[in-house]
Amino acid sequence: MGHITPRPCDEQILFLPGGNTLFGRKLEALNVKLGHTILSQLKLYLETPVEAAPLAVFRILFGGMMLFGMLRFWSYGWIDKLYVRPQFFFSYYGFDWIKPIGNYTYLVFAVCAVAAAMVAIGYKYRMAIIVFFISFTYIELMDKTTYLNHYYFISILAFLMIFLPANAYYSVDALQHPRKSFQKIPAWTINSIKWLLCIVYIYAGLGKLNSDWLLEAMPLKIWLPSKFDVPLLGDFFRFEWVHYAFSWGGAAYDLFIPFLLLYRKTRPFAFVMVVIFHLMTRVLFPIGMFPYIMIVSSLIFFDAGVHHTLLRYLDRFLKLGKQRFDTGTILVYGSTAGNRLKYAVLLVFFGIQLLLPWRYLAYPGELFWTEEGYRFSWRVMLMEKSGYAQFKIVDGKTGSYFYVDNTDFLTPFQEKQMAFQPDFILEYAHFLKDHFKKDGHKHIQVFVESYVSLNGRLSTPMVDPRVDLAAQKESFEHKPWITPFNDVIKGI
Amino acid sequence: MQRIWGIVLVMTLIWACSSDNGSGSGMSDDVDPGPGPTAETFARGPMLANWADNIIIPAYTDFSERLSGLSAELEAFKAESSEANLVALRNAWLEAYKAWQHIDMFEIGPAEAVGLRLNLNSYPSDTTIIESYASKGTYDLKLPSNRVAKGFPALDYLINGLGESDTIIVAKLGSETAKTTYIAYMDAVLKDMRELSDQVLSEWQQGYRDTFVNNEGASATASVDRFVNDYIFYYEKFLRAGKMGIPLGVFSGNTLPGNLEGYYDNDISKVLFLESLNVSQDFFNGKHFASDAKGESLAAYLDALNAIKGGEDLKKIINDQFDTAREQVTALGTFREEIENNDPPSNMLLAYDEVQRIVPLLKVDMVSAMSISIAYVDSDGD
User: Fold this and answer.
1) What's the ipTM?
2) Which ranges carry the Imelysin-like domain (chain B) (predicted)?
């Protein structure tokens, strides 16, 4: 490791929109000295030059896993199955212009995979991560049937990484352009990834603080007994206390793991917990890449020494000469307009991340039932919910009707997801209306008989069967045609 | 210390890549089947054994016997083409058709491999093809395109649909030319049916039984998960829609009596429907074939799960709904009368609603209680 000489740097700025004035002045009025201390502490926390190695390791692992993830998705034939073959796709509100593009969809995945590889090696990093973010997000927006919290996590993480100097160290960019090579970077660039992980964990933990999860041990009480064939643990899954232990343990894990990772002394223990927890979820649930992504991401909490070791291991194979990157140079962001804009974007970004999970409070009714404000909120594995929806096409004039065979239009996966989510039901009803209109039907009304079961409760109708869904419009407002949930789930 | 973490990381990554093996089926939740559950839990193995040994194999055996009974009656009719022998032939056909309802839902393993259902019971049949094959005498019944010209529906046409009265039918079937046309074709159709079903039975007896029973795990490819999917698919698609909903016109807006099962025999559609409904309910309750004894079943499984979870008695709710549906359908006239004489066929539509109500109970409540994923979609979840 090269010797490091921090350069005195008067270009450093502390940018806090609103903060410098509002926050600063208030403190000034109280105690100038104290205010100065807090501000300089904050400044230190954000701007202290720190080793760039952790971010480099993060970039390599992130890019590598994304590349692997894309190839895995492709090799399983899921592109064809999920995005090429279906004749109808469910769109996010406002994004119905984003659709799979037939066989060119493969191209989007290819672009995404190449971008991921370029991120991993740090070649034309900024462009690569932007392309990755756009292509990955495009893929996720094509059909909301496939929505997963961890895909959303990857999208926003990729967005954040656009603004991080992840190619400063041990990258092709740094190798080719010594000007862009830095051994140290501002602390916030690494801390921001930690913040995002903390948000994910803590909100996932808060989401579990409800009566179904804690008092009924639902849905684990349903899921665990069905995993009787898991080696070693399988035999225990029939005991009720195990369901409660897993429920409470899971909630406690999510709520406290960020702090255990942040605190140096508990960090090794916390990492072992991370590995155990996520591998357990991997064994128990069809959860794909998510466990590995979380395990790898939590490495960012470790000191730079660990990352330097990892890079030394890597360098034995790549033989790039890791010491070439230990230049002692420090990246400092000047107070340019561009940088100010960057900070503003990131502040808004984190503000949205903090607020979005609470938007459900703006809707009446039970969140788990209506799912209004459910997505993008780190509510992970909280519900055993399934449904059945039978659509009835009625001629409003003559009253004659027929039922729809959903398999004519939807894949089994789409039908399954559609049947218990009101926004899917509405979108599909409109699709049916348009379809039968083209077939020459007139005065079309669309009604649905739906049955939804939530966390072991007996199925009940979720949508008012008397409401003509063809006449209802999608919006961010509450959907009054959702039948109220006939039970109470207390909690967040 | 750093070295240790390096090793931990490398090990993790190796495990990450190797345990996520993406085996042939593409399931991401494939787990190694571990040791079977202990006695106190509900064991899936004994349930599978009950299905195989007391329901499925006896039903296939019985079916095979009914088909040979049908062959015997056909021989008798060939020897003496009388109206009495036609009636006897028809009765044997009906008995075999009823026995078919006992195996129709088991379209898994050998039956799935040969496509037993498509080969034996694709209806409505195409009478033009049947007539032309019977008169020409050259055909390949193994061709998928000929599925509409064979099996039970083809026999239905040949023994019920050739004329208005038995006298006319006997005259057509008993003629000298019929020996090389209609009768020869019936022989061929029956031979095809017997070959296929005997093949399925022998495969069950010679190994598939153990494959089926030993695949007692909880993954999406395990026997219980797969078969529950097949069972619900059968109920929804072939019992509810095929035997009732489609001819009733609930999916098309206008009635299609020609799509009834056993259309040419004016009044067996309802008989076959009720037989199939009973079989579905008996299967749910684990009732042995042709016996009142019961073994491990989906109903017992629900009971066992309910003991853990508490809550509604789903087993009773499902059985009650089966009973209600049966009562309503039993009260109807023959399906052809109901459909052809009423516009709209209100009573049958009401009965259909009761048949329909079982679907969400099985597909939503039961499956969710058992944590069986429907139509085993192989994608990630979170």
Assistant:
1) 0.80
2) 56-343
